[in-house]
Amino acid sequence: MSEGKSILVVEDEAMIGMMLEDYLETLGYRLHAVASSVQEACDHARQGGFDAALVDCNLQGEKAWPF
Asked: CB 41: neighbour CB atoms within 10 A?
C-alpha cells in the first residue's frame, strides 16, 4: 500500500496516533510522519512532501491554529 497518498498525523496522544496510523493504512494511505506538538507539525509543514494532514485541535494544551 505504499502507493497511496501520504498523510501527516498531528496528534499528541500516542495511542490515538497509533490507531490513526493503522486506520489510515487500512484505507490505503501512507503515513508521512506523526507530529506531537505545534512546533513539530510546523516543521513538517515547511518541509512538505505529504498530501494531507490530520490535525488534533489541542496539542499539549496549545491550540493547533493561529490566533
From this structure: 23
Strand stretches in 1-67, DSSP E: 6-10, 30-35, 52-55, 58-59, 62-63
31: left (phi over 0), alpha (psi -120 to 50) or beta: beta
Q: Quick check: 23 and 5 in contact, CB under 8 A?
A: no
Name the pTM for this structure: 0.86
Q: Are the CB atoms for 7 and 1 separated by under 8 Å?
A: no
| pLDDT tens over the chain, length 67 residues | 457 899 999 999 999 999 999 999 999 999 999 999 989 999 999 999 999 999 999 988 888 876 4
